[in-house]
Each structure stands twice: as structure tokens, then as C-alpha cells.
Design a protein that fits this description.
single chain; 4-stranded parallel sheet; two-stranded parallel ribbon
């Protein structure tokens, strides 16, 4: 019974990435609304790239939760999918409308991009942001096995990055970092550009970070993509040591870290909790 549900979610995500350049059909202005008053230039050497991932999280959560309670073998679901296709033909994305009503914590997720860009500026990095080049990385196409579609979609992403003329691209998302550092060079004409994570740039200028008075220790959960695929783990600890924040290691840490459960929620919702 669960297999049709999985395929339905996957198909919706695949179609939206190909058609709208992100899993839920958000428009460019919606993806870039987080910039607000940062006054970031649109040209430069260091491209600040979000890929819309944090902006999409509250919407994706809403979609996945809904699909978990829908019987995809029912006549009602079949009718809804037909209606979805008809609505999409006139340029309206039904998932986006529906999930927008249910999405929670949008401001919280949007602020992650803002704070990260603000920190990099304070550390002296002359970053720039180009909303037209901030297309979704296509990570879900890769992770869900839509490799043929990924190769076709990746051309748009690469062309957008090339047009900026950037020498370095800094990624907030570990998924995007993996795509640009490891996957894209294998399947596309990826430009000779330095790919950095946000953590790496902060680590390189950690000596400029002010100490923080924080009473309680924090627990580090290493991102599986960061620690295993990208080999980035000690950097977190160095940063915390520099600012004077005590930390506790999770039982499984660094290259032995476990997945946060995010990607699994589309496959095994209950287990990922």
C-alpha cells in the first residue's frame, strides 16, 4: 500500500523541479525574499548560493505530511491528480498553493539565509547574490534516482552559475555542496570554480569571531553529507572552541554520524521521526 504513495510524492517533486526549477514551484522572487535590507550586489567574485533549500523546507514538510494521510489508490486521489494536471496547464502550481496554507515557521527558515549572509559580510567576505542563478541544485533528482532528468536539468543550473562570472560559490546546504563538488563535475561541463561551504568560510576567519557567553553546552550533530561525502567535521568544533562554547559529542559523530531523517521522511515518515 505504501509504494503508490512514495511514487506520487516523487512524481510531483520531479515534475516541479523540471518545470519550475524547484520541488514546489516557488517563484524567483519568493526564493529571494530573504535578502531584505542586506543590499548585496548582483555581481562579484563570491556567489552566495542558497538553492532555495531552506526556503522550501516548510512547504515540503506540509506536502509530505499530507501525502502520508492520502490513499493514493483511491478514486478521490486519482481525481485530484487529474485536477492538478489541469490546473498546472494554466500556469498555477497546486502544491504550492496548498502547502503555502499549511507551511509553518517560514520566517524562521528564511532567516537562516539572511543570518548566514550577514555573518559572512561581517567577516569581511565580499559576497554577492544573483536571484536568477539561485536555482535549486537538483539534489532530490539525484537522491531519488532521476538521473536522466538530473543531467538535463543540471545544464540550466550550470549555465546560471557561469553567467555570474563568479570565482567562488559558497553553499549553505550540504546537499548543494555535494552536488557541485562531486556530482556535477561528473555529469556536466561544470566551470572551474571554487566550491565552498558556509562552514568552511567561517572557519577560515574564525579568529575574527567574538567570544560568546553561553551557559549550557551544545550537542553537535554532524551532517551526514558534510562529514562523510565532504569530509567537514573538525571545522565545527574549531569554531565552537574559538568562541568559547562548550559542546557534547553525539554517540555517533563525524564520519560515523547518522542521517537527520530529512530525506527519509518521503520514504518512511514514521521512522524518520
Amino acid at each position: 500500500m505504501s509504494k503508490p504513495k512514495i511514487l506520487a510524492v516523487f512524481e510531483i517533486i520531479r515534475e516541479n523541479i523540471i518545470k519550475y526549477n524547484n520541488p514546489l514551484g516557488l517563484k524567483t522572487n519568493e526564493i529571494s525574499i530573504w535578502v531584505k535590507d542586506l543590499d548585496l550586489p548582483t555581481k562579484g567574485d563570491i556567489l552566495f548560493y542558497t538553492g532555495g533549500e531552506y526556503q522550501l523546507l516548510p512547504y515540503i514538510d506540509s506536502l509530505v505530511k499530507t501525502m502520508a494521510y492520502v490513499d493514493t489508490s483511491s478514486t478521490l486521489f486519482s481525481t485530484l491528480m487529474k485536477a492538478r494536471k489541469m490546473i498546472n496547464k494554466i500556469g498555477i502550481n497546486s502544491e504550492k498553493i496548498y502547502t503555502s496554507l499549511l507551511a509553518k515557521d517560514k520566517e524562521r527558515y528564511f532567516s537562516i539565509n539572511y543570518k548566514a549572509a550577514y555573518i559572512l559580510k561581517k567577516l569581511g567576505y565580499n559576497i554577492f547574490y544573483n536571484k536568477d542563478a539561485d536555482l535549486y541544485s537538483g539534489a532530490l533528482l539525484y537522491e531519488l534516482g532521476f538521473w536522466k532528468e538530473l543531467k538535463e536539468y543540471a545544464v540550466k543550473v550550470v549555465d546560471g552559475i557561469k553567467e555570474t562570472g563568479a570565482k567562488t560559490i559558497v553553499c549553505l546546504s550540504p546537499h548543494a555542496s555535494e552536488m557541485f563538488k562531486i556530482i556535477y563535475p561528473k555529469i556536466t561541463d561544470f566551470p572551474d570554480i571554487e566550491v565552498k561551504t558556509f562552514i568552511e568560510l567561517v572557519w577560515e576567519k574564525r579568529h575574527l569571531l567574538p567570544p560568546i557567553k553561553y551557559e549550557y553546552p551544545v550537542v553537535i550533530h554532524d551532517s551526514c553529507r558534510m562529514a562523510r561525502e565532504l569530509g567537514i567535521a573538525e571545522e565545527y568544533r574549531d569554531i565552537l572552541d574559538t568562541i568559547g562554547v562548550n559542546y557534547i559529542e553525539a554517540y555517533r559523530n563525524k564520519k560515523w554520524t547518522t542521517c537527520c531523517g530529512g530525506p527519509n521522511k518521503m520514504l518512511f515518515g514514521e521512522i524518520s521521526k
